[in-house]
Specification:
By secondary structure, the protein is an alpha/beta fold. The chain has 14 helices and 17 strands.
């Protein structure tokens, strides 16, 4: 894949940058600007080269039509604050306002287009659905730079189809993400542990299967752990359970045993009588989950066990919180795990936080980004890479320039 340095002199050229600016909002207030900060180096590099930078991105899941709740206007304002320079905002994506804003750009200046997903062509199911919108986007630029790692696993107009229409390169953020993921998949330093949490085991079965050939240990928490506990014949009460995945999990437990891969499950669970912050809670051994209670976090003994299993590791990848961390009574397990990763990082190991809720959790719980080796901007993309899947947004960049 070509990098920005391979594109030659960009002064005065219009560079369309596909960024990942899908930040959480509370009304118009950005509650975590991590993805905007991660996008800065590539945008700054291009402005310093004298390019006219046209940033495109999505936010949320609008249904192919404008929706003020998902406007990128707050993101454009925050980007300007972080850049310390004016950032223009186009109130449409490929319409007259976008063209006027791009035409008005000076060298080294930046404009943010309105939400890509306000246009049905962005997420069209077929190439024909996407191609016209991709052509409209391409008409705004001379060059395309793919820097939204969180979407490279999607075959969408601004990720895949535009790259076929313009000279293209990978941005610094995507380049850095790929470099880290290669370290996880190509002869990682050992012991190598993978920690998986989050709600659904079905979202992670593929990556679990692939990791049984590379990881030394798998530590399982979050809502998905209850399918593992059920597979071992334990009562899980009213906890989140994917009954249709129990047999698949049994198969992976057997395969792990055959391959000598250690699967570490919690030994105690915080249970509650309802999914509420003010619910009555208690901590019980995993063998004693009451039939009328739900598990909402791993317990303190489990946190200690996980810390022990990570202490000697040289490489750790983590995706998915250990519990319902958004509510304070169920945040302790995730916070303890984040501390364990920070300790591994301090000792010289490579720690990778795999985006999504994991990235949000470490920041919400008070951990600075520099306490980890790398915080990914793309949870789904990271998992699919580790699963060994082809990522369309990357493979298209390996093709010859348009």
């Amino acid at each position: 894949m070509k990098t920005i340095g391979d594109l030659g002199d960009l002064r005065g050229k219009r560079v369309l940058v596909r960024s990942d600016l899908n930040v959480p909002l509370d009304g118009s207030t950005i509650t975590d600007d991590g993805r905007i900060r991660a996008s800065l180096p590539t945008i700054q590099m291009l402005t310093q080269m004298g390019a006219r930078v046209v940033v495109c991105a999505h936010l949320g899941r609008p249904k192919g039509a404008p929706d003020p709740a998902y406007s990128l206007a707050p993101v454009a304002r925050r980007l300007g604050e972080l850049l310390g320079a004016p950032v223009a905002f186009a109130e449409d994506t490929v319409g007259p306002r976008a063209h006027a804003a791009v035409d008005a750009l000076g060298d080294g200046r930046v404009v943010v287009l309105e939400n890509l997903r306000f246009n049905p062509g962005e997420t069209g199911k077929t190439a024909a659905d996407r191609e016209e919108f991709a052509r409209q986007l391409a008409s705004l630029a001379d060059v395309f730079v793919s820097d939204g790692f969180g979407v490279v696993h999607r075959e969408q107009a601004s990720v895949y189809d535009v790259a076929k229409l313009l000279p293209h390169a990978v941005g610094g953020l995507v380049e850095a993400e790929i470099s880290v993921l290669r370290r996880l998949t190509q002869e990682p330093q050992r012991p190598y542990a993978v920690v998986l949490g989050g709600a659904k085991v079905s979202d992670k079965l593929g990556v679990i299967g692939n990791l049984l050939g590379t990881a030394d240990r798998l530590l399982i928490g979050g809502g998905m752990v209850f399918t593992f506990l059920k597979a071992k014949g334990l009562e899980v009460g009213t906890s989140l359970l994917e009954q249709d995945q129990v047999d698949a999990v049994k198969g992976y437990l057997d395969e792990a045993a055959d391959k000598g891969v250690e699967i570490v499950l919690p030994v105690d669970i915080v249970v509650a009588d309802a999914f509420r912050a003010d619910a009555a809670t208690t901590t019980v051994p995993v063998e004693q989950i009451p039939a009328d209670r739900m598990g909402l976090d791993i317990g303190p003994r489990s946190s200690e066990l996980f810390a022990e299993k990570l202490a000697d590791c040289r490489t750790v990848f983590w995706n998915g919180p250990m519990g319902a961390f958004e509510m304070e009574p169920y945040a302790a397990g995730t916070k303890a795990l984040a501390q364990s990763l920070a300790d591994v990082s301090k000792a010289g190991g490579l720690t990778v936080v795999g985006g999504g809720d994991s990235a949000a959790a470490v920041r919400q719980l008070g951990f600075s980004d520099d306490r980890f080796g790398h915080i990914s901007t793309g949870g789904g993309a990271s998992l699919e890479y580790l699963e060994g899947k082809e990522l369309p947004g990357l493979t298209v960049l390996e093709e010859d320039d348009a």
